[in-house]
Amino acid sequence: MSAPQKPHVVIIGRPNVGKSTLFNRLVGKKLALVDDQPGVTRDRRLGDADLLGLAFTIVDTAGWEDDDPATLPGRMRMQTEAALAGAHVALFVIDSRAGLTLLDEEIGRHLHESSVPVILVANKAEGRAGDDGVFEAFALGFGEPIALSAEHGEGLSDLFQALLPLVGEPDDAAEHDEDEPEYDPQSVLKLAIVGRPNAGKSTLINRILGQDRLLTGPEAGITRDSIAIDWTWHDPANGDARPVRLIDTAGMRKKALVVDKLEKLAVADARHAVDFAEVVVLLLDATRGLEHQDLKIASLVLEEGRALIIAINKWDIAEDPSGLFNGVRTALEDGLAQVRGVPLIAVSARTGKGLDAMIAAAFELRDAWSKRVPTAALNRWFDSALSANPPPAPGGRRIKLRYITQAKTRPPGFILFGTRLDQLPESYRRYLVNGIRRELGFDAVPIRLTLRSAKNPFADKAK
Description:
By secondary structure, this protein is of the alpha/beta class.
């Protein structure tokens, strides 16, 4: 079965406005000859373009000239008209530094007679030398022109926004990390249990397994090596058998208290286990409540980008359990401000209370941790978020946020393109991250948001 044909986007304009330079920029390599001399391109040239995940076929054409069809320039124009006839979108390129010409106006009239959607591109707009030409371009009647520099890669995120509704859903695979494996929700869940010494980690795992697999006792620090045990969980909701790799770890005390060499190695091994895990359960001791060391361990887990669950163990002997639960929840909201709503579950290693709920929550959290949002849906949310709360304007100059894409999963990572991002307040960044988490189904997993100037996202691509 053949692959579906990509949309065709044809570049049209008079000679020497930078059509071939734009073509090279979009295909990421110098396929078309470029020179200051007009008329270098004569035949149509096709290339596979990738613009921030949008995949399409880009068509370079000869410069449009008003000559008799029998002449060479006239035959070149006929090739351009043929390319336009089969196109999904036309990029009408003008030279913003030269301003509008009579030939630009003639091409504009011809394009108005065509049924092909037109995006007006004011090229060579780097710096401010092309501002007058950009304003003149409104007279062509194609709406707001895209101020762009094909030579320097500026304005490509604006071009993306204009193309997005016309060429269909972006090819999200183009944005993925090539080394990132496809997520299989039926794969083994790597679940690490961490916490302070004597919180009951090994006892909890023994209860889950239904056997005394791990050495336990009242002495703190019995576990030294991180132990991984493969186990199958039978989901009580539907009876499904789900594979789990349980990882027991050494207790993590305050760094100042860790002086023994073996304990140092054990804590380092526990940290390595966090790196290996997908979901981490931080086990608290209900008889001691939430301590500062617990918050430090939780922060470590989140900094490593792992999904986090807080489980309060020894619930069967807790005093004032309702007050304890609410107090821990409030302390977590204050102490883990970077991630709101971390799952909090009451469990008992002695009675088995809450263990199925904890495992079920771990699978759900891993699904959110591995989630990828289609680019179109992500940007619909993004436009809505900007409309509801526009970015600030420090010094009277508004910060412009142009486009967001999800670059990776596990943990979810996003790249935000815009201008003057060095002045974006941390509060607004948190607003966006919380919105992604709340509106797009990422729950309480850690999210990475990278800010990147939209001035030149493809600076090295065409070199």
